[in-house]
What does this fold into?
Amino acid sequence: MSESQEKPGRYQRTTGGLIGSMIVAVVVVLGVVVFRETFRDTPEFEPESVDYLPAVAALQGEGRQVAYPPELPDGWMVTGLDVEPGQRPAWSLSLLTDDDKYVGIHQRDEDVDRLVEEHIDENATEGDPVRLDSPIASEWTTYSDDGGDHGFATTITTDVGEESLLVYGSAPTEDLEALIGLLTLDPVPASR
It folds into this structure.
């Protein structure tokens, strides 16, 4: 045997070869991602409307007063409700406007500033008080954040004493004001 046949073969390791290998790997990964996205069906999420008036009637039957809209503006829907019983009960509704903007109603025996921090923004800006045409309160404090969320807060007197009420969301302030104009503490109409 000759001496050259006994030595193992060597290949040249170059920066150019490394870069070329990386480019090929990236192209293959991108190809797989594009192929997968092309043939994947992404399901569309359609929120379901929640019938909230029976829950309000049940709470009222237990002696609890909650602020709620007896009817909604055209195209709006309630997408969720939450009831927290206990010493400091809470009540909230989640709604979508006809333009799919979020609106929330939150009522709790808690400081307004905490509700604003929790539901709007820790750094929300307090605006001037405003007078709104509402059956439950005429004086409201406005709040907003840099992300475009707005809120209106007031204090109402209910069966548990004074509670904070916050109406907030990404919807335009006109929509929030329209909802505030519908809020009531009255019993749910029997025809529902």
